[in-house]
Amino acid sequence: MTAQQSPPGESASHDLGSPEFYLNRELSLLAFNLRVLEQALDEIHPLLERLGFLRIFSSNLDEFFEIRVAGLKRQLSLGSSAPGIDGRLPQEVLQSISELCHEAVDRQYRILNEVLLPALAQENIHFLKREEWSEKQAAWIRKYFREQVYPVLTPIGLDPAHPFPKVVNKSLNFIVSLEGNDAFGRDLNLAIVPAPRSLPRMIRLPGDVAGSDAYVFLSSIIHEYAHELFPGMTVQGCYQFRVTRNADLDLDEVEAQTDLAVALKDELFSRRYGDAVRLEVADNCPRRLVNYLLGKFGLTEDFLYRVNGPVNLVRLITDIDRPRLRYRPMTPSVPERLLRAEDYFEVIGQGDVLLNHPFESFTPVVEFLRQAARDPNVLAIKQTLYRTGNNSEIVSLLAEAARNGKEVTAVIELRARFDEESNIEVAARLQEAGAIVVYGIVGYKTHAKMLLVVRREGGRKLKRYVHLGTGNYHAVTARIYTDYSLLTADDELCEDVHRVFQELTGMGRAAKLKKLLHAPFTLHSGLLECIEQEVRNARDGKPAYIMARMNSLTEKQLIQALYRASQAGVKIELVVRGICCLRPGLPGVSENIRVRSVIGRFLEHSRVFWFENGGNELLYCASADWMDRNMFFRIETCFPVTDPELMRRVKQDALLTYLADNRQSWLLQADGSYQHNVCDPGREKMAQQVLLERITLH
After folding, report:
1. Is 447 known to be catalytic?
2. Do 595 and 468 sit in the same domain of this protein?
3. In terms of domains, do 488 and 636 share one?
4. Domain, as residue range, for 179
5. pLDDT one-digit tens code per residue, 80-108
6. Exposure of 393 in the CB half-sphere (CA atoms within 13 A)
7. Are 480 and 327 in contact (CB under 8 A)?
8. For residue range 668-690, what is the model confidence (pLDDT) as tens digits?
9. What mean pLDDT, rounded, does the chain reach?
10. Of 447, 467, 518, 524, which one is the catalytic site residue?
C-alpha cells in the first residue's frame, strides 16, 4: 500500500498529541478497501467469490465517496481548513485520495477484464460484448430490447426547454451525441438517456440461445440500439456515465426534536440529489462530452474516473449456480445445551450461553425471542433495533408479542446509515401491532444491541433474561459477519440493561451500572482505566498485556493511552479490520504494539477487548469500536464475559487464533502501509478456516 507519511525518528521526549504519531483516517479506510480489492486476485478464494470481492470493493468505494470524500469537500466549501488528527489539511487528503483511487479503479477494471472474465470464460461463463454476439443471440437481444427495454426508456433531448435533468445518485445514464433535426425541426446535438432502476443491469441469455451461461450488460444493449430512440437522426456516439453524490444526511436538529421520522423522510429524498462528488464515464467518451458533464456536475478533473467496463460493478451477477466455484456450504452449529432445549429460559437460567457467529447459528437468538413472544409467563420485551430489515423474523416476533398482549418496547435507530427508510417502515409496522416505539436520543445514535425479557416465575417473582451482542439483529448479516452473542440471566447484567432502557425511553440522570460499560458515559473512561491499570502493573513488575479486536481505531485519547502503555513495556496486540490511526512500531513510542488486519470469507465485525490485569483477566465484548463517535455520540454497551470457560473460548477464538493467522492477515507498518503475511505452502493458518473446522465441524 502507498505510504501516508514517513515515521518520525526517535527523540528524547515525545509529545503524544503531535500529528506525526497518527495516520490519516480517510487514507486508512481507503487502504482497507484496497486490501479487499486484492482478494479478487487471491486464488485461495473460489472464482465466483473473487468476483464477489470485486463487487464489495465497488460498493465500499461508492460509500467512501458518498460519505468520506463528500465530507472533505463540504469542509472546503464551508471554508474549513482545519487539519485532521495527522496534521493533513482537507485539500491534501483529497489530493492523496484522488491519486490512490484513480490507480485503484484502473486496477479494478484490469482485474475484471484481464483476469476474472477470462477465467470465467474458461468455466463456460461468458459476459458477452456486442462484437461477440452471434446472429441468433443478436436476434434475441433485439427482441428483448424492443419488448423489455424500449418501452420504459425516456430519452431527454437537451435544449432551452429541456435543461439537463436531475441525475439520481449512482444511477446508470447515457449521454448521446446526435446529428440532424427532430420531428419539431429542432437541431439537437445532445440527449440524456437514464436507465430505469427497474431494469436489470445484466441479462442472462436463454440456454437455447447461448449454449452456456451467458450474460449481456444492459449498457451494451442500449448502446447497440440507441439509434432506435432517435428516429430520423444520426447517433454519433452513446456513452455511459454515473455520478456519485453526497449521501450523508444533514438533519435539522430543531425539526428532529419535533418529529425525527418526518425530518428524516425529508432528508432521504434529498440524498438522491446531493452535491456531486465523483463522475464515472466510459473511457471512450470524447473530451468535449466529458468536459460538458464535468461542468454540469460542478466537478474538476480530480473527480473524473474513466472506466473500461460497466460503470457500476456492484450490479455484476454473482448468483450463478456453480457450486464448485463458490465456498463450500456451511451449516452453523448450535451449542449442545440449546440443541434440544424446549425451554430456553431454563437453560439460560442455569448459566450463560455464548454464540460465536457465523460459525455458531444466530437461530438461538431468534428462538429466544420466539419463546418469549409466545410464553404466557412473559410480561415484557424490550429491544434495540439498528439494522434489521422490515421483513425480518425478529420484527415479526416483536409484532406477534405485542398482539399477544405483552408490553413490547422497541428502541429503533432511524438514523442507521442507508437503512433509514427500512427502519421507518419497521417502526410503523410495530406501532400498528401495538408496540411502544421510541427513536432513542436526538444527537446520539442508539447502536447498542440489547434484548430484555421480563418473565413471571414461581408465582409472583419476576425474573429477567438478556441478550447482548456485538452485531445487529439481522439474520442475513449474522451468516456473513463475525460477531458474538451472550444470552444471560445474570441479575446484575440484567439490571444494568434494564437501566439503560430506562435511559433510552425515559428521562433522568445517567444510570450507575454494576457490570456494563456504556457510552457516552462510562465506556471511554472505563477503557482508559483498563489500559492505565496495565501501565501500573508493568511498572510494578506484574504481567501486563492487552489484546483487542475491533473494526476501527481512531479515538485520540485511547491511542495515546496505548502509546503510554507501550512506553511502559506493556505488550499490545491489536486486530483492527479497517481504519487505524495508530502508528505501530515507532521507537520510544509504540515499539510494543502490533496491529494486524484480517480479511477473509466473512466480514470481521466482532469487538473483543482483553486485559491481563495482573493475572486477574478481564474480557469484554462490545457493540462499539474505539472511535470518537462510538465513545461520545452513540449509545453503546460493553459487556464482560466472566464465566471462566466462556472467557477461555473467546480469548482463544477471537484473539489468539487471529494473532496466529499467517495467510489472510496484513501487518500495519509505521508508515501506514500494510505488509501481507505470506507463509510457506502447506503451513497456512487462516483464522476463519480454523474456526470453521473447530466449531462448525465439532
Report:
1. yes
2. no
3. no
4. 133-255+274-317
5. 778 889 999 999 999 999 999 999 999 99
6. 13
7. no
8. 999 999 999 887 777 889 999 99
9. 90
10. 447
